[in-house]
Design brief:
The protein is 53% helix and 8% strand. The protein has 207 residues and is of the alpha+beta class. β3 and β4 form a beta hairpin.
């Protein structure tokens, strides 16, 4: 059985969605990020990075980082169609996935949620928050320029990129940050999926 280490409402929500979409049997271990669960010895023994999500495979291999877990799931279970068939489209899926995770999340929302990481002086906090919001807005506008006018998912089918973009859209929606038209439509498309509704309910959210 797969072992999945997660925090409700975090980036691990995207992986949770993929696991449920694949209808996989897994054990979920819920970690409290604010309480420091990811820095405790038991978890660090599994993932020395002290980060989530983490997926431990049936063979006992520990997978960390959103992109690597999502890619592994897509390739391990190809019949689900979480990646397009042609290699160029696959590369484009990974491009958007990594942009959502590393740029919109890693540079933007990290400054919004944990501005203390960037503080030299307490009076810098508001500037860091503004910078985070600006980076998030720029990130979504970049997605808008590439996919504006399109309806439905990012590509011709639901892919691992949609799960990645959704969790940062979900954060924007929760924090009342504006989403440009395509991203708002994409968010609404995602929350209409039965699995997404179920995952959010399981994690304690109403949308």
């Amino acid at each position: 059985m797969l072992n999945f280490y997660m925090t409700p409402g975090s980036c691990s929500t995207g992986i949770h969605i993929l696991l449920e979409e694949l209808d996989l049997l897994f054990s979920a271990y819920v970690l409290n990020l604010p309480a420091g669960d990811t820095q405790k010895p038991d978890f660090l023994a599994i993932n020395p990075k002290g980060t989530i999500p983490v997926l431990v495979t049936d063979e006992g291999v520990v997978l960390t980082e959103f992109a690597s877990i999502a890619w592994w799931l897509a390739v391990k279970y190809p019949k689900a169609g979480l990646l397009p068939e042609d290699i160029t489209s696959q590369a484009q899926v990974l491009e958007i996935l990594n942009y959502a995770v590393s740029t919109i999340h890693g540079h933007g929302f990290t400054r919004i949620f944990t501005p203390e990481r960037y503080l030299f002086r307490e009076e810098d906090k508001e500037g860091i928050l503004r910078q985070g919001k600006s980076l998030v807005a720029k990130g979504f506008n970049t997605i808008e320029k590439q996919f504006g006018g399109k309806t439905g998912y990012l590509f011709d089918q639901f892919t691992i990129a949609d799960a990645a973009l959704f969790y940062v859209e979900f954060w924007a929606n929760r924090t009342e940050l504006p989403l440009p038209p395509f991203c708002r439509q994409h968010f609404n498309t995602m929350i209409s999926r039965p699995v997404v509704k179920r995952v959010l309910a399981e994690e304690g959210y109403r949308v």
